[in-house]
Specification:
By secondary structure, this protein is α/β, with parallel strands linked by helices. The chain has a domain of 178 residues: HUPs (Rossmann fold), CATH 3.40.50. 42% of the residues lie in helices and 10% in strands. It has a 5-stranded parallel β-sheet, with helices on both faces. Helix 1 crosses helix 6 and helix 7 packs across helix 8. About 4% of the residues have low confidence. Bound molecules: iron/sulfur cluster (SF4). Iron/sulfur cluster binds next to helix 4. This is Phosphoadenosine phosphosulphate reductase domain-containing protein. GO terms for molecular function: catalytic activity.
């Protein structure tokens, strides 16, 4: 009997997964694929707007969310506040990224479990490009899920991504004007300049992030306080005009250095376009995604 295969493709609201969905639709039109978006409940309005535009191009997108796990274990609604309490009032961090497990992976697992119980093997399409390091082992959940990398198979690189969006009538999501990636409004992978921009663009969401920092005032079990920007750096510090100016000046210097390098490379034939926030990791000499999981930002 032929193996039952369910093809799924996750959209994060980022440019690579969006371009991947459009690319797979173009190049593998016979594939019966189901799109999903894991809505943490803490997405940027710009991300939600972009998902609506994508849906117009792709067709139905399943919306998975952590709150759909509501009361599964009888422990109440999975709001971030409740999750924070469950995790001892420790904010998630690069060292303990419980948010990705709770807000992204668990809803995904719950969704695919229904297919798996029905005898399907899952083929999960992932937007890792040919010009990125091999991250084929990124999926940490133990399920019969095979990752498929069409961009790697077909040699698609960063400079192809915007072309794919444009030929499908889509511009980059609006948040790229001020932030380097999709994901939660309070994501700790943000740089200080992005926190400042969040404060400016969405003051209410900045205030909400500040509120989560407070926890219940016993924000630690070892006597130290942790904040989104790291130890000893609450978001409150960004209220100080001197601090703001320093962050903006440092960012402008970093940008100037990066553009100088870009121009030098352009003389050698590298004429890739510059988009300040889409190129932010490269500008700061960081790994693309800043170490964040592809589930969150691709
Ligand atoms: S986007 Fe950031 S805060 Fe949200 S789940 Fe991913 S790593 Fe955690």
């Amino acid at each position: 009997m032929a193996k039952k295969i369910k093809h799924v493709l996750g959209l994060s609201g980022g440019k690579d997964s969006s371009a991947l969905a459009l690319y797979v639709k173009e190049t593998r039109p016979d594939l019966d694929i189901e799109y999903f978006f894991t809505d943490t409940g803490y997405e940027l309005p710009e991300t939600n707007d972009f998902i609506i535009k994508l849906e117009q191009q792709l067709g139905y997108i399943h919306k998975l969310n952590a709150r759909s796990l509501n009361n599964i274990d009888g422990r109440g609604e999975k709001t971030f506040k409740n999750l924070l309490k469950e995790h001892g009032n420790y904010l998630p961090s690069q060292r303990d990224r419980w948010c990705t497990v709770q807000l992204k992976l668990k809803p995904f697992e719950k969704w695919v479990d229904e297919f798996i119980a029905d005898g399907y093997e899952i083929h999960n399409y992932v937007g890792i490009r040919a010009d990125e390091p091999d991250r084929s082992g990124f999926m940490t959940i133990e399920k019969p899920i095979k990752s498929i990398f069409p961009f790697r198979e077909d040699g698609i690189v960063k400079s192809d991504i915007e072309n794919i969006l444009q030929r499908n009538g889509l511009e980059l999501p609006e948040y790229y004007k001020w932030r380097s990636r999709s994901g939660c409004t309070f994501c700790f992978y943000q740089r200080k300049i992005e926190w400042l921009k969040l404060k400016d663009k969405h003051p209410d969401l900045f205030e909400q992030a500040k509120d989560f920092e407070k926890g219940d005032d016993t924000n630690t079990t070892v006597g130290e306080r942790f904040y989104w920007m790291g130890q000893g750096q609450p978001l409150d510090t960004l209220e100080d005009p001197e601090v703001q100016q320093r962050i903006m000046n440092n960012h402008e210097k970093q940008k100037a250095r990066f553009l100088k390098k870009k121009r030098r490379n352009a003389l050698l034939g590298d004429i890739e376009g510059f988009c300040e926030f889409s190129d932010l990791d490269e500008m700061y000499d960081s790994l693309e995604g800043g170490g964040a999981c592809v589930t969150c930002y691709k």
